Amino acid sequence: MGVRKPEDIRSFALCAHGGAGKTSLAEAMLFCNNQISRMGSVQNGNTVSDFQSEEQKRQISISTSLLTLERAGKLFYVLDAPGYADFTGEMSAAIRVADSAVVLVSAVGGIEVQTSRAWEYASHHNAPVIFVISKMDRENADFEKVLDDIKSQFSQNALPVFLPIGSAEKFKGVADVIKGKAYIYNNDGSGKFTEENIPAELTDEAASAREAIVEAAVEMDDQLMEKYLEGESISDEDLSRTLKQAIAKRRIMPVFALSSVLNIGVNKFLDFAAEYFPSPVDVGAVEAMDGDKKITVEPKLDAPFSSLCFKVLADPYVGKLSFIRVYSGTLSSEGNSIYNINKSEDERISSFKQMTGKDGKDIKEIIAGDIIAIPKLQSTKVGHTLAVKGGFNGRFAHIEFPKPVYSVAIVAKTRADEDKLGNAISRILEEDRGLTFEKNAETRDNVLSGMGDMHIAIVLAKMKERYGVELDVKVPQVPYRETIRKTAEAQGKHKKQSGGHGQYGDVYIRYSPLERGAGFEFVDSVVGGAVPRNFIPAVEKGLREYMTAGPLAGFPVVDFKADLYYGSYHDVDSSEMSFKLATRLSFRKGIMDANPVLLEPIMDVEVTVPDQLMGTIMGDFNSRRGRIMGMEGHGKLQVVKAQVPLSEMFRYAIDLRSMTSGEGSFSMEYSHYEEVPGDIAKKVIAAHKKEEEDEE
Prior knowledge:
Layout: E1 9-15, H1 22-32, H2 53-58, E2 65-71, E3 74-80, H3 88-97, E4 100-106, H4 113-124, E5 129-134, H5 143-153, E6 158-160, E7 162-165, E8 173-176, E9 181-185, E10 193-197, H6 200-218, H7 222-229, H8 236-248, E11 253-257, H9 266-276, H10 280-283, E12 286-290, E13 293-297, E14 306-315, E15 319-328, E16 330-332, E17 337-340, E18 345-348, E19 352-356, E20 359-363, E21 365-367, E22 371-375, E23 385-387, E24 406-412, H11 415-431, E25 436-439, E26 446-450, H12 453-467, E27 471-474, E28 481-484, E29 488-496, E30 503-513, E31 520-524, H13 536-546, E32 560-568, H14 576-593, E33 596-610, H15 614-623, E34 627-634, E35 637-645, H16 652-660, E36 665-675, H17 678-695
Parallel strand pairs: 1-3, 1-4, 4-5, 5-11, 6-11, 31-32
Antiparallel strand pairs: 2-3, 7-8, 8-9, 9-10, 12-13, 14-15, 14-23, 15-22, 16-21, 17-18, 17-23, 19-20, 24-26, 24-27, 25-26, 28-33, 29-30, 30-32, 33-35, 33-36, 34-35
């Protein structure tokens, strides 16, 4: 392409609810651009985007794939992001680094939960948005209804630039409202068409659509606005310039109609993208932080090189690939290294790759606006800022990923699996930022958390396939806690004589409840040396040790005060250990006398569902001992806010999908601890005692 410029780059994220046709559109774009000789399909597992074995097996996208196209003198970077709720973090990251978001909405299914999520992410990042109403060839396709829904639920700035000619089995082409032309396609998937005048039945609608675009576009230029208000005509050149500005500033959100499977309208979408989609220069500067100072990063070639890693992929062919978005400057792959600002480490560059699915084409230089992959970077992780040492000192904001909502406890099948687990987990965590892993100190479970059961299942399959680690899963234990409801006093006296030095420790401790969340407080009220000063730390140490396993059911005891107010000692036989053992006796008796109860973690839960499923969700929360805290309407979607015990939420990701046919999504985070109802507490305590007996 000769000397490359940021002005000639177009990058966009393809986003949608699962099944709206993103991967099919990506395939059709590659076909129209003569990069593949025939279009693959998700069902046949032979698309360029879905190249991972789990994607092909499950027939869904699970990871963002990057496609690189050249068209009309412009370089396209297309990020095909997953639409399945379990992989929503991938969509968020793709929108963050692309210059615009292309949101697909099925002409049949309309706006769905993940469509709204894509809109929210794009709005959060202030990204230009382009809507594509897909599947116009399907039965019951309804362009007008979906367009009205987009306007009412998202933005009145959604304006059609191409109108469908026919629909369902009669869908045969598109009308370009800006150029005033119609394109009638062959019905064979070839993408070939004939140019005609807009059909008579669409002329009024096309004229009205063009007028709306002109009105919105001229707002970008005061002089042009004056001309327009005075009734002067707007030249094609002026309209083209201001339309591009209006899209970049979200004043116009173009709407397309097409069919990827029949390849109707796809080439016109690409041509429009080349002409009107924003370049890095149109989008303008982004922000970074240099220490405590906010700085702006301009997409200029003569600026210091800066970039952000937004994805890491363990590729079975070339090893680890780090995907980066370049925000400023240029960098050559020859004899250069790249500096990881977050880790303060140099990384050696072997090559830069322009990716199309799993295939990469080596390029020698990258510039502002490029989205490429670098193989074999060692320390670089998602969210790290990469630059040239001594040139750029800022850091780009971390990429935000949704918090996991589904957890399992994992158990290695064999000792060999256990030995390999640590390495496999650390590599998987590098690649998948929607995943967390922790060894719970209270329950001793190895807890793997993700966005849903499919997410976890795919992670486990990857660990087996790549690293040979086989794991069993079980429901994690709930980290219950114990506390007390009244004040009690208890003596603990440890006295033992067995020849030589004996053991003697004697303490009187008062146990009082504290407010929820207060933790533990130790008070020394001993007067007159009843317990010598040098033994008092042993009492506190003993309490802190024994409170990790309470007398009720073996869970940590919290939110209480222990007041050591009296005791006795022996000049010869007393020791720190004697007082620790005396403390244990006092603790177990005192807690049991102070009306102990179980506490359970309560979660803040937000569920987003269509209007008609509100009753189902609220009824289900009642069955889970949940409390409805409020509701908010977002168009045809409702957000139900509730507080629910964690013990009732382990399978919620699965149950919600079943209840809503995949139309519901939720987020969850810890809120506080509350007392467990008596009947449930009895079952938990009984199960714990049985477990203890089985271990004996």
